[in-house]
Amino acid sequence: MILLPALALVSWWLSEPWRLRRRRARIVRTPFPPAWRAILRRRVPVYRRLPVVLQRRLRERVQLFLADKAFIGCDGQAVDDEQRVTIAAQACLLRLGQADGGRFPGLHQVLVYPGPFVVDRVAHGVGGVQQDQRRVLLGESWSQGQVILSWPDARDGAALPDDGHNVVLHEFAHQLDQENGAANGAPPLGSRQRHARWAGVMQAAYAALQARLAAGQPGVIDAYGATDPAEFFAVVTEAFFERPAALADEQPALYAVLSGYHGLDPRAW
Q1: What global pTM score does this model have?
Q2: GO CC annotations (predicted)?
Q3: Domain that holds residue 237
Q4: Using CB atoms within 10 A of its CB, is residue 206 exposed (0-12), middle (13-18) or buried (19+)?
């Protein structure tokens, strides 16, 4: 009597990838709402620069993202399609070249605040002394499946697509990094060879950033990237999408591994 329910459960579990593909195919067959397209053109100017094939792919990825992820307004922030489409389009740029349909499998919710938000943390100091710290943030990525964003900063980051700063790209880069555990600057890459290449290039670029900052020299990569390898990956992701030509000139090996990982070359946009 137990065998039949068990077999049914196994059959259901084995069919899940098929059911997921079928659901996603059904979503992307749904016409993209004209109001959403207007939001993309108005709020996300990089969309207008994309080749037609990537514009279509971005629209599909936005549809899938919005069907899968919950948006929650916090501290009185109302969330409508303006916020949802603007944020989703920026996040989906990161997966535009990926063959998996652009999923963020560990992400469940996007929390949207009406401005910078306060986070209280316990910091461990010298000798194990604990201190309460209060930080004001524009965005944060949690490994439990949430991204938290200040709406004005998410909106303004999209409006200025070439200044090298974008809080949505930054926090969703952390989500990519967290797909294989705690953020450490190395997202899933698929093979030991690619991991070895990634580690060598990233470590060299990270050391170059620290040396440049110590010498007081200007550069493309923001100083915040020197905080730790996880922040370095998030910061260079911003530069890759927003200042690609300058990053390629300054750090060609770094640009090459990022381009290979993302499957994109934003210099062509």
Answers
A1: 0.88
A2: cytosol
A3: 184-269
A4: buried
